[in-house]
Amino acid sequence: MRKTLVAANWKMNGSREFAEAFFKALDLQGVSGDVAIFPPFPYLPLAASLLQNAGYERTFVGAQNVSQQAEGALTGEVSVSMLKDCGAHYVIVGHSERRSFYAESNTLVAQKFLAVKESGLVPVLCVGETLEEREASKTLDVIAAQLDAVFALAGGDCWSGAVIAYEPVWAIGTGKTATPEQAQKVHEFIRARLGAAGPQVQILYGGSVKSANAASLFEQPDIDGALVGGASLDAREFAEICRAA
Ligand SMILES: O=C[C@H](O)COP(=O)(O)O
């Protein structure tokens, strides 16, 4: 049986003061699955240390992005080894905000995925369609292309030990969640596409998840947790979502 994972993606929000208050308020009693917090880069070491001090088992920090390169003259970039140094366990690659605002292509996302995998950290690969693509009945084609680009580069056993997050772009930060049935249909498709590793891979749903809708999403057989944006900035609300998993 797969463990659940609920992940907090703070995006470009927070401060030192926010992080300290968040971890002080975060009560994970009664949570049985894995939990991960993805703060902005500068707060990773602080988050790692505050989480360690809290003493919960199976709690991790992760980064929201990474360079596909190992080192060099790449102003503003951050490598996987730096993330490891800072205590990261997971790294998000291919979030739709990176794909759309920073023009990250399927190929670049695949290179980042491979860099994370080779470093021993765990990639959280985000996939998902825009509203236009959904309305044109292209959802599954878009997701297949996003997955296939990674497989084409990383090949072989690339999915084992990785996490996938299905995030319909039209549901991110909009308050419009995919229905549990809509999400399940895509998760089932993704799992089948992962081949032999599929049954073991955690597939998260992301897009306006909150405590009020988390349980109905988590009841679906192929939804193994959530990648939470806005609602993860409230420690109590986030802990409620974790408890629902
Ligand atoms: O990474 C998280 C997703 O983009 C979802 O964000 P949201 O919960 O604010 O819709």
From TrEMBL:
Subunit structure as annotated in this protein's UniProt entry: Homodimer.
Q: Out of the domains of life, which is the source?
A: Bacteria
Role played: Involved in the gluconeogenesis. Catalyzes stereospecifically the conversion of dihydroxyacetone phosphate (DHAP) to D-glyceraldehyde-3-phosphate (G3P).
Q: What are the binding positions for substrate in this chain?
A: 9-11, 173, 208, 229-230
Where mainly located? cytoplasm
Tell me the CDD domains matching this sequence. Answer: TIM
> What name is this protein filed under?
Triosephosphate isomerase
Q: What is its EC number?
A: 5.3.1.1
Q: Which NCBIfam families match?
A: tim (TIGR00419)
Gene it is expressed from? tpiA
Which compartments does it reside in? Cytoplasm
* Involved pathway(s): Carbohydrate metabolism; erythritol degradation; Carbohydrate degradation; glycolysis; D-glyceraldehyde 3-phosphate from glycerone phosphate: step 1/1; Carbohydrate biosynthesis; gluconeogenesis
GO molecular function annotation: isomerase activity
What enzyme class is recorded for this protein? isomerase
Family as reported in the entry's similarity comment: Belongs to the triosephosphate isomerase family.
Which residues participate directly in catalysis? 95, 167
Q: Which reaction does it catalyse?
A: D-glyceraldehyde 3-phosphate = dihydroxyacetone phosphate
The organism encoding this protein is Microbulbifer aestuariivivens
Q: Which UniProt keywords apply?
A: Cytoplasm, Gluconeogenesis, Glycolysis, Isomerase
One Pfam family name is TIM
Task: Tell me yes or no: is Aminoacyl-tRNA synthetase among this UniProt entry's keywords.
Answer: no
